[in-house]
Design goal:
3 helices, Stress-induced protein, single chain, elongated, about 0% strand, Stress-induced_KGG_rpt
Length: about 90
């Protein structure tokens, strides 16, 4: 026969739960609001790890666009392979 116990966080009164929970939020290291140097360092690391943009590498941009187009399939409901950069008014 199992018995329920009155132990643990869930069985505490609501005010006590809030008090404990708020301590955890204040101690959390995930907020950069109070530590600008830490935020700057995190941003720097993220930028170094990023592949960057395509501003100085048009060949890489072209390859990425081609891969994206191949993965997306057709953009047209009829499944045609019309190029989106063709004029809408073209009779071609």
């Amino acid at each position: 026969m199992s018995q329920t116990s009155n132990r643990g966080f869930a069985s505490m009164d609501e005010a006590k739960q809030r008090e404990i929970a708020s301590k955890g939020g204040r101690e959390s290291p995930g907020n950069f609001a109070k530590d600008r140097a830490r935020a700057v360092e995190a941003g720097r690391k993220g930028g170094q790890m990023s592949g960057g943009n395509f501003a100085h590498d048009p060949q890489r941009a072209s390859e990425a666009g081609r891969k994206g187009g191949q993965q997306s399939g057709s953009n047209f409901p009829d499944g045609s392979d019309r190029s989106p950069d063709r004029s809408r008014h073209s009779d071609i």
